[in-house]
Amino acid sequence: MNRRTFNQILLALCLTFLASLNWTAPAFALGGPQPPLNSPAPDFSLPTNTGDGTLSLSDFRGQWVVLYFYPKDFTSGCTLEARRFQQDLPEYLARNARVIGVSADDVDSHAEFCDSEGLKFPLLADTKGAVSKAYGSWLAPMSLRHTYIIDPEGILRATFLGVQPAIHSTEVLAKLDELAQT
Q1: What is the percentage of the chain residues whose pLDDT exceeds 90?
Q2: Cα separation of 103 and 74, whole Å?
Q3: How much is the pLDDT for 13?
């Protein structure tokens, strides 16, 4: 059994278990308290599969940041979401925006995932969940599917909690356009 198949089976089992608990809390409550809009975004520095090995929020001052959290490399929804961000990457760059993905997967898994899907944006390894927790996007042992838009000064301007991978990149681009006009 290869790593991708194992990961998909493991994720399916975890999601089945969670669904069996019959939680009624809304999705936004699952990851913990959300950082407040219009205040400084929680800072971070995490290992990545690109560049010099780590990236920090401060590395992107002067640019918009689309910080998206996702559960697991190589799973269907996460792959679809990453493909959509990659497909629209020229649109983000034209808006002076950088896309950054975060999950609990390690750097090696991210490197494999980027190679497999042709991703040209960084993925950060939040293996202990500290950054995911700071953004209210952690449900151990994985990050939840949340996205945050951070302005060029490091201020959190938008939060997406009910993410639908197939259309999410389009929603984020529209929100970036709206924020740029204000």
Answers
A1: 78
A2: 12
A3: 65
pTM of the full structure = 0.83
| First-to-last C-alpha distance (Å) of the chain | 51
Q: What is the pLDDT of residue 109?
A: 96
Q: How much is the pLDDT for 12?
A: 65
Q: Is the peptide bond before 141 cis (omega within 30 degrees of 0)?
A: yes
Asked if 78 is an active-site residue, the reply is yes
Give the bridge partners for 156, in sequence order.
Answer: 150
Tracing tokens 């559960």 back to the chain, one arrives at: 71
Q: How far, CA to CA in Å, does 14 sit from each of 1, 8, 67, 72, 90?
A: 18, 10, 24, 12, 35
User: 71, exposed or middle or buried, with CB in 10 Å at 0-12, 13-18, 19+?
Assistant: buried
Q: Is 99 left (phi over 0), alpha (psi -120 to 50) or beta?
A: beta
For residue 69, pLDDT over 80 is answered with yes
Collect contacts of 159-165 with beta carbons under 8 A, ≥24 apart: 159/34, 159/37, 161/27, 161/28, 161/34, 162/27, 162/28, 163/68, 163/81, 165/77, 165/78, 165/80, 165/81, 165/84
Mean pLDDT of 19-42: 71
Q: Which of 78, 97, 102, 150 is catalytic?
A: 78
User: What six digits make up the tokens of 125?
Assistant: 């390894």
